[in-house]
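Task card 7
Instruction: Convert sequence to structure tokens.
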Amino acid sequence: MEQKWPQQLWIVRHGQSAGNVARDAAEAGGLSLIDIATRDVDTPLSELGERQSLALGLWFGRLPPGEQPDVILCSPYVRARQTADAIRSQLSVAGPAPSFIADERLREKEFGILDRLTRFGIEQKYPELGEQRAHVGKFYFRPPGGESWCDVILRLRSLMETITREYRQERVLIVCHQVIVNCCRYLLERMDEQQILAIDKQGDIPNCAVTSYAFDSQLGKQGKLRLDLVNFIAPLEDLGAPVTSAPDKQAAPKS
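Output:
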């Protein structure tokens, strides 16, 4: 029997970003547009996000050498890369740094014409889209110029094929975004629409939270990844880095 999965897989949401902060300010002020000048891809971590990323990096760095990540796969967005860099810097202290690959398939869900709009802004500018979304459902709704959850899952299926082909028996860390974390769970745990939306409805994923899987040779015919940690935030709490869980820049109403 040949093991096709990594030995360990961690999936991490990036630290708090300047976009998260701007979104919170816009929502609190009842504004329609989030006031941030950069493209979403260029939005950096906030000062707090840097602290969160360092705290998580220290936690990874304290793992025994034989249990640390061998490779880091990261969204190309600046906030994700900065989070990955902070983690990688702590891993390189004890020995060779893990290899690093920025993969566009891990990018944030694309919001199209709804980008930078608050809930109020969406309702004010595109009320018909709210009606369409309610009819189609969050899982299948694709805003003009953007992506549905299904679109995201399609590109992540390709990513999973790459992982099983190139990183079998290795320890892989993925640094990405909130929707990407949930869509990875959908694939790895073989969920359906109702199951993943029920998880999403429970609340936003904390920044720098860890969801992880360990390979279990006893599962299935050839072994599978077994869910180990879900939204693990102890590394932040232990080092006194405040936990934040705001959604990313664009925030359509939850359903």
